[in-house]
Amino acid sequence: MNQPLVLTDLLHRAREFFPAQEIVEYGGATETHRYTNRDFHERVVSLAGALVRLGVRPGDRVATLAWNHHRHLELYFAVPLAGAVLHTVNLRLEPTEIAYVLGHAEDVVVFADLSLLPRLDVARAERPAMIVIATDGSGPGELTYEDLVAEGPPLENPPRIDENDLAALCYTSGTTGPPKGVGYSHRSLYLHTFAACLADGHAISERDTVLHVVPMFHANAWGIPFAALMTGAKQVLPGPHPVPAEIATIVEAEGVTYTGMVPTVAADLVRLVAREGADLSSLRALVLGGSPPDDELLRALQELGIPAFQGWGMTEISPMGTFSRPLPSVTDPAERRRSVRKQGRLLPGLRWRLVGEDGTDQPHDGAARGELLIRGPWVATQYFRDEHPESFADGWLRTGDIATIDADGYLEIVDRAKDLIKSGGEWISSVALEQALTANPAVAESAVVGVPHERWQERPYALVVLEPGRSDTPDDVLADLRDRVPRWWLPEGVLVVDELPRTSVGKIDKKVLRAKVAAGGAG
Amino acid sequence: MNQPLVLTDLLHRAREFFPAQEIVEYGGATETHRYTNRDFHERVVSLAGALVRLGVRPGDRVATLAWNHHRHLELYFAVPLAGAVLHTVNLRLEPTEIAYVLGHAEDVVVFADLSLLPRLDVARAERPAMIVIATDGSGPGELTYEDLVAEGPPLENPPRIDENDLAALCYTSGTTGPPKGVGYSHRSLYLHTFAACLADGHAISERDTVLHVVPMFHANAWGIPFAALMTGAKQVLPGPHPVPAEIATIVEAEGVTYTGMVPTVAADLVRLVAREGADLSSLRALVLGGSPPDDELLRALQELGIPAFQGWGMTEISPMGTFSRPLPSVTDPAERRRSVRKQGRLLPGLRWRLVGEDGTDQPHDGAARGELLIRGPWVATQYFRDEHPESFADGWLRTGDIATIDADGYLEIVDRAKDLIKSGGEWISSVALEQALTANPAVAESAVVGVPHERWQERPYALVVLEPGRSDTPDDVLADLRDRVPRWWLPEGVLVVDELPRTSVGKIDKKVLRAKVAAGGAG
User: Fold this and answer.
1) Predicted confidence (pLDDT) at residue B523 exceeds the cutoff of 70
2) Which ranges carry the AMP-dependent synthetase/ligase domain (chains A, B) (predicted)?
3) What ipTM is given for this predicted complex?
């Protein structure tokens, strides 16, 4: 009964049980490729053979720098089948950051979309031995992807894989330093795949048509490609840069039943439907992740009859950690939205703790706050190359999130440990202060950072983007805030800016903001 | 990410996330006990503490001889929590067989229902050191179950469990010799639990109310108690000897959504509804297992609007091997029934082969036959104490079933390599029955075959050759047999013949015998 849990079993399962199931790729709103799991399997095995002939050995890292297309999906399975480690690189990174992660991972081969090849310039200069293969069209004189697949023969004798061997690798966008690598074993991704198909979670099934909106360079694309292949779900890939109008067209054309996306994209989609009236009624589940959805978005989705859920996770958790589905007893629409705005319940298999500043476990009463610690069979217990051991404690991942857990077991993340501002020995929540700022009708977006302060150690400082047509002054913004927050929360200053800087994954980049404030904004 | 997969995590999950969820016990059609997961957890931890104080050490076997009641459910978790191995004994075995399995497993403690204590007489005489505890009422002078729970304190420091440690043990009814033990590791049951909750399978979820009709002395009660606790489903236990009228009453009273049972019981239930009109509309899934359902039963269930599925498995597969759900594209009612009459598709995680007599893999075309071989993380690769190595080949379990697999991946078992008769979901060993027949001094030779039976699916039928000079009648033969086998093993008929037909290699040709019986012997 100690059969190893290896990903390649999922690939073979799709070939055996769902050979005629389709994989469809779009480019924009136009279908560009449609084939079956049978063809997919054949191409994956051919590509794995080509990787071995290229010199890729078990344990080697093979990178991708690519949008969501069928060749990227093939790489998801061909690289682990060859015993190698799939390293998905975030295409929004700067060329120097890309060079950093490729160097850190020591990738021997990188597959990149033609349009993204220029981003590899720095890395190629640094690592001339690295083999670069264009996934589409012809590369700059090198082998192309289709050459490799066509060259055959398929991999005859795949290397024997231990379940604890790495199958994939993904770097977190570093907010406090260089990116950190998270390695995923075959076992961890296999168990994560089962978790994605549980009836109480994402519930991926053979009856689904899954649209991969979540970038495949994000942690395992939430694990959905593995779940789809295991269950025989139909998979649809939107191609590069999907915009809401394209997503709506694809949902209609393919009868998409399940997709996941960040709330920003979902909000755009909802506005598009309101404006132009697309039919999204085939969706049985729209899972929101990356950041929590607001009530307005959830209400709009309710009005459209689209069941929405929140999934919370981290690169370090493969990434699925929780799933927010209202309790069976909760039927009131507003109460259901409140449930979904929380991060939800821990997936089976995982365990968590809420640890207060004094190191003690906090009660799960919806009020007590603590840092969230997580452990489980798909939670990292170390970073690649054993860096940053301080992020782990006795097998627990320190998430760096400050959270509450209510009596029903629903997680609510109330702050990042590092985004808390400690003023005169008291915590100020930058998240709560940002919410109070955007409650002002004049304010479109806001960000709060901590700035050093002689008397109070640290004080909040606010940056706001005004709604179009508004010309409120910093004093106006402060005046509005007076009624909304405790007096001692009032920021030391307000800076009106045109836009807020964001990281490659779309999060507000507080590192840049702090620098901006330090450089004079605060003066 | 190599967190061990241990069952006790499921117990703690229920306590943390679903403390108020109910567990209800019935005795007949009367509710006898209702409590919550919170109380359940507390009692389980107390009982585990008591086991340790009784002297139970990690790895020791602790047996149960019990019906489906809340204390049996508590033992399912308390025994593994104490690091010991739960050995569920089939209460339909004869006292000598019970003594055999208790001796073979070397159980140190046995928990038995008061009504079943007499069945332990042989075992107690053989193993006087074995501690016997009555699960209900007061035992014969010994500790009772409630004494143990009340005695406290709870287990403070549960032993550290490795995922490959055994958590449970179950014996198959021996077909060609004594019963064989199948050990289940924590890891195997944990993965089996995930499989039970997949959206495409049994799909056990928090929204379910599960009725445990499947005897808990059968292989892990199909794994449903673990799945229910992991997901927070409400659990309902029917108590001893549930009859269809009681099942119908419980389904109505508790709003049962999921249950599993053998087709015989389901057919009785359907007849009861036709006669007396119970409301079973709360059922979202009725899973039939143990033997395949016939078309009449499936049509009756369709007419009642009860979705029915077939689950196939074996004690050696924990027991879930396949699940038969019609393809999403199949909507015609008759075609759906045809799908459900097949054993269905292999669960994710498992792999299978169809091996012909010449040792080659047979095509999956719905026509080619072969012996079914299975492997996977919850498939046995050996029997307890390493007996019968011939049942395994290179990590594959030889199921002994002759089957076809069609192009959609649906298994259909067409014959059994070994001579077993399945009567109302329970195995009868034709070999053991033949031995009992020839123990009669009047009988020279005997053969037993299974004949189709309306109520029990299959029943044994005996053919005997008398010793020279004897003229015993079939009734004489049956009368002699009464003292030698359980009542329910008694053949439907006995045919006295001059000789038994044999194959070219001298084996009794049961195919010819079945034809003989069908042609009139059974009339």
Assistant:
1) no
2) 19-384
3) 0.86
